[in-house]
Amino acid sequence: MLSLLRARGGRATASRRILLEVLFDSHDHRSVEELAAAVQSRAPDVHLSTIYRNLEELEELGVIAHTHLGHGPATYQLATSAHAHLLCERCGRRYEAPAELFAGLARAARQRYGFTIDPRHFAILGRCAECA
Amino acid sequence: MLSLLRARGGRATASRRILLEVLFDSHDHRSVEELAAAVQSRAPDVHLSTIYRNLEELEELGVIAHTHLGHGPATYQLATSAHAHLLCERCGRRYEAPAELFAGLARAARQRYGFTIDPRHFAILGRCAECA
DNA sequence: TCTCTTATCGAGAGTGAGTCGCAATTGGGT
DNA sequence: ACCCAATTGCGACTCACTCTCGATAAGAGA
What we know:
Chain A is of the alpha+beta class and 132 residues long. Chain A is 39% helix and 20% strand. Chain A has helices at residues 2-7, 14-25, 32-40, 48-60, 103-113; strands at 30-31, 64-68, 74-78, 84-88, 94-97, 116-117, 124-127. A 3-stranded antiparallel β-sheet of chain A has the order 1-3-2. The N and C termini of chain A lie far apart (44 Å). Chain A binds chain B through residues 68, 70, 86, 88-89, 95, 97, 101-105, 108-109, 112-119, 121-129, 132, and chain B through 68, 70, 86, 88-89, 95, 97, 101-105, 108-109, 112-119, 121-129, 132.
């Protein structure tokens, strides 16, 4: 993965290695603030703006992806573990929604508008059973 | 609608009347910036923070609703004309999606998680035919 | 290993979209 | 007309980024 970076003229710097390691260790989404804390516990001088830039770079590379869960800040994860979400707008409860839930919508959107949905980028808001 | 406000202990102030008139005149979503410009063309002293507070108040009343179209700022419209959107994340093209497109997802989410979706609050991102 | 080009970095200022605290104003029930 | 809580204007503030800039350091080539 680091050589993928190099192949594009990029460089495998310490802050990128650590960021990638942190992302591999996180088996859930992490906000930038959380990622920064984890990276900085190992290399205190890594600046927040570097984390943002590296996340952007790695995302362009297709290695990671970000998701918006409601109104909060973006969350990042490995591209391989990206998935859709249902998020309760009252209590914040979150469900990970498998792609097949969106099969009907995906088909209808394609037929009617030629539109290909990516349900993983923004969560679907609504109410959970308790809050409904 | 103003008496609905009063019934709740609220007041029908000039800025609220004008804001509502602007919203009734807009037959599309409007960003806060646009709404502010329209309101201020009629009453220049209305402050942005007042617009924000009034939008919040009217939304609590159920009269208006806001929607997030991708990464941009929120957009507001009358609650009666709220609907779901498909938004191309490359070119920004927007489709208004009728509720029946979401019927399958709504049913599946309810059955599997007891979750009631509100597909109008956040747009569904993806790629339009041209950008796919 | 040394050099050199330039990608990347840390630091800090800047931006967009709201949100908050406060004193002055005003709607509207009485 | 009176009164007082709701509302307003204003500015300061927060949050989540984003940009600029001079310094640093990867890593390709010698």
